Amino acid sequence: MRKKDIVVSYSNIETRIALLSEGLLLEYYVERPEQSSLVGNIYKAKVLNLMSGLKAAFVNIGLDRNGFLPLNEIPFEEFAELFESDVELEQEYRPEEIKLKKDQEIIVQVTKDSYGIKGPRVTSYISIPGRYVVVLINAKNIGVSRKIRHRREREELFKIGKQIKPTGMGLIIRTASARAKHDEIKKEVEVLKRNWEQRLAQAKEPAPTLVYREPDAVIKVVRDLFNREIRNMYVDSEQEYRKILNYLGIVSPRMRSRVKLYTDPQPIFQKFNIEEQLKDIQERKIWLRSGGYIVIDQTEAFVAIDVNTGKSSKEKQAERLAFSTNLEALREIARQLRLRDIGGLVVVDLIDLEKKENIRRMVREFKSMIRDDRARYRIGSISEFGLFEFTRERSRVSVTHALSEICPLCKGKGRVQSRESIVGYIERWFLNNGSSIQGKMVELRTSPRVADFLSLHHADTLAKLGKRYSLIVRVKGDYAVGDGDFKVVVV
Q: Which of 90, 239, 267, 456 has its CA 20 to 30 A from that of 69?
C-alpha cells in the first residue's frame, strides 16, 4: 500500500490542500471565502414553484440562485455518495415521492454546487457526516463502506451499527471505523444526533435560513481523508494546526501524532514540489512519458479527451503501440479527472484497436485505476469508433473553474477573431462610413497585437482607404481595446 501525505498551505486569501502519494499530486483543493462550497449545508427552505414537467421544485435557500429539488423518488446513493461513494447497502430503500406545495417550508441539504447557469441541487433526505459514521436523519438504512473488504469485519461493523443506530434514523459506517473502537463510534453517533437536534431546535427563523453549515475545507479533509493510509499531515499555520489537533482530540486522539507543524522558511508547496506539479493543472495538452499526449476540453455538455501517440516510438507494431499508449493515457486521465475534480459525462477518443481482447482489457484496467477515487463512476463500453464513455460524480465546481474565469475576449469560446477578419471589419467600416468623415484626420485604435499586424501587413490597405476618402489614418495600439474590436476617432 502506497503511503500518502496531506499538505496544507494557509494564507489570508486562500487555503490550499494537496493529497500526495509518494510525492505525486493526486487531489487538490482550494478554498477562498467568496468561493466556499455549499455541499453538505442544510437549510430551512421555502418552496417557490413546482415544475410538473421536470418533476421538481425550485426552493429559496437564501442565496442568489434557488435550489433545485427533484420531486420523484430520490435514490439513497445520491446523498450517500456525498460522504462515502463506495457504500454497500444492506437493505433496499425506496423513499415515497415528495409531496410539496407552494410557500411550504422544508428542510433541504445541498448535494451539488451551482454549475454554469444551474443553481445548487438539493435533497430532502438529510445526512450528517462524522469521521466514523454518517447519520441519516430521515432514513432507516445501515450501510457499510465497500472499502472495508474483510467479510468478518464488515459483519461486525454492521452489528455495531444496528446496536448504536438512533431510533428512526439510519447509519453509514465509514472506512475509518475499521480501526476505531466500539465506544468511539458510539460516542460520535450520540454527538452527531445531539448536535442535529440542537441546530434544528435553534432554527426558529422563517425560511430561508441556514440550519447547519459544513466545516471549512481543512476539517473536512481531516474528517474524510485523514485515515490509516495517510502517513503525515503537514500544516504551515499554527492556528490551523491547533484547530486540527483540537478536532482530532475529540474524534481520534491516536491520529494527533501524525499532524506536523511546518516551520521551514521555504514555502511548504515548494518544499513538497507541489507548485511545479500545479503548473499543468489548467493545460489542455498533457504529455505522457512515452511521448504520446492527451488533450482535455471541457464543454457545457461533456468533457472530451483525445488520445494521441505523438512522438511515441517504444513499440514497433501498430497494435502494441496503440494499446500501450491507450493504457498510459487512461492512467493519466484517471489522475487528471481526480486532480481537477472534473465530473459529468466524459468521452475519450482512444487510438483504434483491432483485437477485442485488448479493448475489454482496457476497460478492466480503467476500473482498477479509479478504485481509489472517492467520486462515483458509471462505466460504459468502448464503441466501434474507439469512443470510451463514462460518467464521474460531480458535486462541486471543478478545480479548473475555481482557478479560472471566462476570457473577456473570447467569451468562453476558447478562440478570438483572427487578425485578417478584423482587417476585413475595419475595411468595411470605412467603406460604409468614409464619406461622412471625408477630409479628416482619424485615429484607428486597436489592440497592440492587431496594430502591429496592420502596420506590417496592411499599410497599403489603409493607404488606399485614406486616398479614397481623403483621410489621414493613424494606427494606435491601445490595451483598452479588445483583440476583436476597434475604434475610429476623429482627431
A: 90
pLDDT digits (tens, 9 = 90+) for 51-97: 877 788 899 999 889 999 987 534 344 434 444 445 554 444 444 44
User: Which of 399, 336, 345, 403 minimizes the C-alpha distance to 373?
Assistant: 336
> What DSSP line would sit under 67-134, residue for residue?
EEEE-S---HHHHHTTT-SSEEESS---PPPPP--TT-EEEEEEEE--BTTB--EEESS-EEE-SSEE
At 1 the pLDDT is 57
Q: Residue 329 belongs to what H/E stretch?
A: helix 318-340
263, 237 in Cβ contact below 8 A? no
Q: What is the value of pTM for the model shown?
A: 0.80
Retrieve residue 143's grid coordinates: 450501510
pLDDT at 312: 64
Of 344, 351, 349, 366, the closest CA to residue 298 belongs to 344
Instruction: Name the phi and psi angles at 333, rounded to 5.
Output: -65, -45
Closest of 321, 380, 312 to residue 351, by C-alpha: 321
Sheet holding 441-446, edge to edge: 472-477, 441-446, 487-490
All 3 cell numbers of residue 10? 494557509
Residues of the chain with pLDDT under 70: 1, 72-100, 312-316
CB within 8 Å of 425: residues ≥ 6 apart: 486
Residue 242 is predicted with a pLDDT of: 96
DSSP state of 302: -
Burial class (CB in 10 A: 0-12, 13-18, 19+), 49: exposed
What is d(CA 448, CA 425) in angstroms, rounded to the nearest whole number? 17
Write the pLDDT tens digit of every residue in 420-461. 999 999 999 999 999 999 999 999 999 999 999 999 999 999
Rounded to the nearest 10 degrees, how much is the dihedral formed by the CA atoms of 308, 310, 315, 317?
A: 60
Query: Per residue, what are the HEC states of 118-156?
Result: ECCEEECCCEEECCCEEEECCCCCEEEECCCCCHHHHHH
Burial class of residue 236 (count of CB atoms within 10 Å of its CB; 0-12, 13-18, 19+): buried
Which residues make Cβ contacts (< 8 Å) with residue 394, sequence separation at least 6?
112, 115, 342, 343, 344, 375
